[in-house]
Every structure is written in structure tokens, then in C-alpha cells.
Write a structure and sequence with these properties.
The protein is an alpha+beta fold. It has a domain of about 160 residues. About 30% of the residues lie in helices and about 25% in strands. It is built from 7 helices and 7 strands, in the order αββααααββαβββα. The protein has a 7-stranded mixed β-sheet. The protein is globular. The protein starts with a helix and ends with a helix.
């Protein structure tokens, strides 16, 4: 008899458990152990228009706010930016940013307020510089200018060339890592790819990658026109 009572008690506990969970849901009460909430990560890209410090002190701000023009497309941006790998690798972010500000994509492109995107970065944001083929508008690029140039050559090749072979198994050769940048190296005129999440109605950047175009013409359309025009 005692054994039968124990079995019935166990069955009653099993039946009551889902009833209590259902009652809590109906009353709007959260479960005792809710699953962890993970903010959905989103992506955007474009040319930096403004970089503003966040905080009372500009010398040691607690963060930075970027305003990005997302209406500029990669193929327009690279017309004045793309160059051969060695030249791109030698050019620092400050000089590249100045050239980006003066480019056709930045100066001649309208700025629609609805397409201006603001995002905040803090000390936890990963900021790196990568290189991308001028004909690749969606890839993550390469940590080195030479790697992006190889991708450019493979993409534009029509002779059926194969991609470079991967290093053999067990090789000690390590893949190069992207150069880490400081927040102060982010300048208007640079192209950025941004991974972000929303938090309290703000866009918080988790990753910012400055993308430098490699390949294509070494001179801008304006320079080509000047060089091709007859001298007086």
C-alpha cells in the first residue's frame, strides 16, 4: 500500500509542474530560470562623416560616436582610393582618410539624413584595419594588402587559374592578423564595416573594420582626365 501511495504522489508532482508554469505565464510572471537574452547583432557599412568624443573630457572620453554615410557604395568609393598593394600598405589611415574626404564618393555624394547612421564605440569595441579587393563589395577582406591583391587577381583572372594552395597540414606558418587600431585613428573619409547591437535605443559597436581598397586604377578619374588632356 505504501509503495502504491508513493507512485501516485510522484505522478501528481509531475502533473502539477506544467500547471504551475502555465499559471505563471497566464499571470504574466517570468519563469524562475528564464533563458539568457542575447541582443541580435546587425551589420552596416559606409564612409565615416564625423567622429565625436562621448563624455566631459575630450582628452580622455569614455567613448566615441561615429556618424556614417551608408548611402555611399563601395564601387564609387574605390574609384579614388584603390591602388597597388605596396602603396596602400605604406599609406597611413590619416592620409587615406584625407583622400577619402576629398573623393568623388564623399564630396559629390548627397547626404540623406535618413541614411546617416550613428554608432557608439567603447573600450570593448574591436577596431582593426583590413584590405579588400576593389571588385569585392561584400567580403571581409584580408589582414594584408598582398592577400587582397591575390583575391583581386583571382577574381579578375579569365585563364582558369587556381587559387593558391593552402599550407600543408602541420605547417608552423601562422596566418597574419589584422592590425589593431586605436579609436583616435578613426577619421572622416575612411570606409568602415560595423557589427553592432542595439542597447537602450543606442547602437553599440562590437566590431569596426576599416577597409582599404586594393587593386584597380592607381589614379583617380580626375587625375586621368588631367593627364590625358592636351597641354597648352
Amino acid at each position: 500500500m505504501a509503495a502504491a501511495m508513493k507512485r501516485w504522489s510522484f505522478r501528481l508532482m509531475v502533473l502539477m509542474a506544467p500547471v504551475s508554469i502555465f499559471e505563471a505565464a497566464v499571470k504574466g510572471q517570468p519563469p524562475k530560470n528564464p533563458p539568457p537574452k542575447s541582443a541580435e547583432q546587425e551589420k552596416t557599412s559606409g564612409v565615416i562623416l564625423k567622429v565625436e568624443p562621448i563624455g566631459e573630457s575630450e582628452k580622455s572620453p569614455r567613448g566615441w560616436k561615429l556618424t556614417v554615410n551608408t548611402d555611399v557604395v563601395w564601387r564609387d568609393f574605390v574609384r579614388d582610393q584603390a591602388a597597388e598593394p605596396k602603396k596602400v600598405a605604406r599609406t597611413g589611415t590619416a592620409k587615406a582618410a584625407k583622400k577619402g574626404v576629398e573623393s568623388v564618393a564623399s564630396e559629390g555624394h548627397p547626404k540623406d539624413n535618413e541614411l546617416l547612421f550613428t554608432v557608439e564605440i567603447d573600450p570593448r569595441t574591436e577596431i582593426t584595419m583590413r584590405y579588400r579587393s576593389s571588385t569585392d563589395s561584400i567580403g571581409e577582406g584580408s589582414p594584408t594588402a598582398e592577400g587582397a591583391a591575390r583575391a583581386e587577381a583571382i577574381t579578375s583572372s579569365t585563364s582558369g587559374e587556381k587559387t593558391p594552395a593552402a599550407p600543408p597540414a602541420g605547417s608552423t606558418r601562422q596566418s597574419p592578423k589584422a592590425r589593431v587600431l586605436g579609436a583616435t585613428e578613426l577619421k572622416p573619409g575612411l570606409w568602415v564595416d560595423i557589427d553592432f547591437r542595439k542597447a537602450d535605443q543606442r547602437n553599440m559597436a562590437r566590431r569596426v573594420a576599416v577597409l582599404r581598397p586594393v587593386g584597380g586604377a592607381d589614379t583617380s578619374p580626375a587625375e586621368k582626365n588631367r593627364s590625358s588632356s592636351p597641354s597648352r
